[in-house]
């Protein structure tokens, strides 16, 4: 089993920055892909970013490309999402996810999920 715990969410003004963290525990971390998804009120959960086990493959949603950066620290079993130039439309619950087979942009490609952390961007 894998446990994922997100942190770092909060309230920020438009144009500001936040750094989300996701700590993984319970199984070997380094061989899996890690991703971030988000769900805004009344909307479906959507892909944000993902990173391969060795950091060699990184993908972003077009809506966050150039503003967000995903990274991981294998030694600490943690994945990060640095969010800059935040916009009100970035307001959502952000979820960390772990995939056991491949790096993907679809929800079904991930096997374990965190509980989510709220990010609110005020205008």
- Identify low-pLDDT runs: none
| Whole-angstrom Rg | 13 Å
Give a count of the beta strands, DSSP E runs of length 2 or more.
Answer: 11
What is the helical fraction, as a range of percent? under 10%
| Classification by helices and strands | mainly beta
Instruction: Report the average pLDDT across residues.
Output: 93
Strand content: over 45%
Distance between the termini: 40 Å
- Counting DSSP H or I runs of 4 or more residues, the number of helices is 0
Name the helix and strand elements from N-terminus to C-terminus, one letter apiece: EEEEEEEEEEE
Shape: globular
Main sheet summary: 7 strands, mixed
Short précis:
Helices cover 0% and strands 50% of the residues. It has 123 residues and is mostly beta strands.
What this model shows, in words?
The N and C termini lie far apart (about 40 Å). Strands 2, 4, 5, 6, 9, 10 and 11 form a 7-stranded mixed beta sheet that branches. The chain has a 4-stranded antiparallel beta sheet with strand order 1-3-8-7, with no helix packed on it. The chain has strands spanning about 5, 10-15, 20-25, 35-40, 45-50, 60, 70-75, 80-85, 90-100, 110-115, 115-120. The chain has about 120 residues and is mainly beta. Strand 5 (about 45-50) and strand 6 (about 60) form a beta hairpin. The model has no long low-confidence stretch (mean pLDDT about 95).
């Amino acid at each position: 089993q894998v446990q994922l715990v997100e942190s770092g969410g909060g309230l920020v003004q438009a144009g500001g920055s936040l750094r989300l963290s996701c700590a993984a525990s319970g199984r070997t971390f380094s061989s899996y892909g890690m991703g971030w998804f988000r769900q805004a009120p009344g909307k479906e959960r959507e892909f944000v970013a993902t990173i391969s086990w060795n950091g060699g493959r990184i993908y972003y949603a077009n809506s966050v490309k150039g503003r967000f950066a995903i990274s991981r620290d294998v030694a600490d079993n943690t994945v990060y999402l640095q969010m800059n130039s935040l916009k009100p439309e970035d307001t959502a619950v952000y979820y960390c996810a772990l995939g056991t087979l491949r790096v993907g942009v679809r929800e079904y490609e991930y096997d374990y999920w965190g509980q989510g952390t709220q990010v609110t961007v005020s205008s």
